[in-house]
Amino acid sequence: MSPAVTVPAWAPSERLFHERARAELRAGATGQAFSPGPLQVHASVLPLIRRGATGGLEQAVSLIVESPEDGLAARFSLELAGRPVDAALPMLRRGRQALRLFLPEVSKPSPVSVRVAAGGTDDAFDLTVLPVRKWQVYIAQQTHLDVGYTDPQNLVFRHHLHYLDSVLDLVSSTDQYPDDSRFRWNVEGTWVLRRWLRSRPPSRAREFMDRVREGRIGIDALSFNLHTEACSIDEFACQLAIAAKLREEHNIPITTATQTDVPGASQALVGLLADADVPYLSVAHNFAGRAVPYVGEGQLLARPFRWRSNSGHEVVVWYTDSAHGLYSEGNVVGLAESYDATVELLPEYLAALAERPYPYVRIEQAMTWPGLPRDLLAAKVPYPHDILHLRVQGVIADNAPPNPTAADVVRTWNQNWVYPRLRLATNAEFFTAVAERLGPDLPIFTGDWTDWWADGLGSAAREVGLNRRAQSDLALAATVHQLADVVRPADAVHWRTPMGRAMDSAALFDEHTWGAAEPWGDALERRNSGALQWREKAGFALSAYERSQDLLDSAAHRLSPILASPAGPSVAVFNPSPWARTDVVEVFLPESRIRPVGALEVIDEATGLTVAHNVRPQEHERHRPRGARLTFVASAVPALGYRRYLYRTARGDTEALAPPPQLFLENEYYLVQVDSASGCVTRLFDRRLDEELVDSRGAVGFNQYVHDRYAVAANVGHLSSRVSAADWLLRSRVTAGEGRVIERVRNEIYDEVRLSLAADGCSRLETTYRLVQGVPRLEIENRLVKLTSAEKESTYFAFPFSLSDPLTSLRYETTGGADGPDLPRIPGSASHMRAIRHWVALRSRKATIAWASREAPLVEFGNIHLPYSPFPESIDRTQVAPSDIFSWVTNNVWDTNFPVQQGGEMVFRYAVTSVQPDTLPAEAGALTAAGLTRPFMGVLCARSRDAGWPATGSFCEIDHRDVALVALRPSRRGADLVVQLQSLADEEVETRLRFPQLWVRRAQAGTFLEDNLSPLFQDAGWFHTRLRPGEFRAIALELES
């Protein structure tokens, strides 16, 4: 029987934390303890300054007194330099009570005597009074937007619209207050504001924007809180464009962004914010869900700081610093409750902040944070400044309503105290003050702030896969539609609004709220409406995917008349990559175009040569269009261009080649051997490099299915946050087996084998391996039907690579460009896993191996880590290597916010390529991923009635392989179109672009918003531009009329 789960004393429950934090403050967060007579006294110096009766400043000494009985008369007095300065004569009650005595403000350390007379005793003890900071506290009121979690999504949105109504009322009701105490509000996300503006009368909208310009309402630039690592770069940019549009339409300032809850963000955020003229970022990380940044270098992260991306972009960051204070720091110290609570708690908090690494947690209590070594807090220094930002919500809750209490608290406070000075503020006000007072001296931290919550992406593998496919397909659809708009504007269609809706759906799925607080519940409302919330959330991914397919289909039909040939019916093969490619293409031939479908001849129109092909019958044919699927390899298709292939009926059909007797696949590039029992590749031999690429001697096979079960109870809220890793947690680990071949195909196009395997956690697992003739790539498809279970589990596919030389470089694609374990990272980032876009490149002195994943983003390098803090390795290091990749495809280790179970049919596609070692990693990775994420588009064309375009052509070519062409899109500034580029290089690069069939008159480079445009130098038809690492740029093109 498994041991019982041990829950640490300090469980990360919000209420429990806040109660304990307040209790610690009330007991005296700093200072020293004494025992005069029958009493226990804790004395400390507080940063609380008032103006005395004579006009001078006086500072406070706090006495926390514990009395053993009621009605005990006592006298407490302070003596400075032998002179009495203050006294109090309370009648004590049993238990704890607080007293404050005052003395003239000191300018240097000064000894005072504290005298206590009680119960017939008269004692004195010495206390050193130090000068205290004259704090300026900026109180930023807002609500944290969870799109769901506390209620179903649409109900949450409606509530937030009402919150903005209330904000305007509260702003007006405090117009007569002193300026510091006037109600101010920070709009965390533009998504709610955009909906509010569309649903309210214009007069109300004007009033709102007037208040923004007045400085009473601040607007933050992000639409909502995102899993930024799940976003494509253009999807991410689209969300920031909402803020840019608001700023331009209403002439309002938007200089800050807020990121709440998600403990980490892609460095793409830095570049996008900087390019959007948003120099400030307010962050509040949530350490739930096994996030433990304090276990490692996170102790070294100072605040505020400058976050610099590898591109050199910077933003100034403020982040909340208490492990569980999150975005309710001000609530803990009473600011949303009452003046009495605030005056009791805030001074103690400020004193602790100035003296302790963390304001609440004593060293001996730090062990209640999972995985924290006892001596680690010694690495963190107390907060050094006298300017502070405190977040306040209406109540301690997600989706909390506005609350006017803080305005009254601040008004009363500032009437009574000179320091700390409190001010209700917008985020912009605070950052402006920081820039003025601390700007030149802020520390700089560089790199990705890797998200600890990225593991949640594995909780919905099917939906994540759909959304990732939508991201790629929407970029392709936008590119083709935009080309069609400029090439044949008379045939324009209504595509931009559906595209915007599809991009919004993709972003709503990548928004950080993936389920209810209790996701296993099935209520109609509130925190346990898990089933309803997940249905809506999953619908965002499905909507994005379905819209992407509609837009792709429409785009292909727009290209058809443009690329049609006068020589006869044809297939125009469109290459979405910015370099020439040879790859496989598949297109549906309807029976209405050619009868009978099957006996065909395919001819390369440019060369006149016949091309090998394969024709397969339509699947599910009784319920789908009549016809067949034509597959062939299209050679040397130009960069972002096309190559046309004629087709016509022919005698006879393509005959399948006899399959070899053993499980060997081969083409001119690779020899692959498969073990049918395990379903794994045991040999992947590169004939060009004379290199074996698979390590078949380790703990796991190549493309091995691995299923882990954990000894942690299901459906217990936040349980995983309270469990530390131990050997017993890994209850079982099972790999797939009992494989058998169910299909073996070898024809002139591809060599393929499909196997069925028995796999724990699945009712079916089928694995397909394919080599395409003429294409240097192994394609892998794992299709499984997962059994639905709330039992804690994970599924991986393992890819142990063999490198005859040591690994010299590892790079992987992220939203913010190429990253790697040797590149800088923000201290406290997650390191046991990564969420990649699509590819990983491994480089040695003899080969560069590239691996790509279409649907599954999560990877672990070199080992499988137990998914509980502190995330230890679970495989003996002698049995694995740094070049091993583990694709973490499913898990349900979360106990809140993410689905606790998933099931049904899922597919995970991978590709592997090897190239010469001098090939740049990004080039190898992009080439490998292109077959999965940017496949050739087959466009069926009727015979053209006019001369038509040439048989082959290019619209855009980029000469640097580390520069990705993201998409072509409409211009925001009146150009004919925009080319979106992103650098995947480690260093700044110069690249050239040309547009052979677009007749470009002028090209300008600027930000993704087309700001700061500058003309590009042109030389012999090539336009020159430079990009920094990870940089996302727009090239605005003006065409000849």
From TrEMBL:
The keyword NADP does not apply. GO terms for molecular function: alpha-mannosidase activity; carbohydrate binding. Signal peptide: none annotated. Pfam families: Glyco_hydro_38C, Glyco_hydro_38N. Residues 665-804 form the Glycosyl hydrolase family 38 C-terminal domain. One of its GO terms (biological process) is mannose metabolic process. Residues 137-443 form the Glycoside hydrolase family 38 N-terminal domain. Its cofactor is Zn(2+). This is Glycoside hydrolase family 38 N-terminal domain-containing protein.
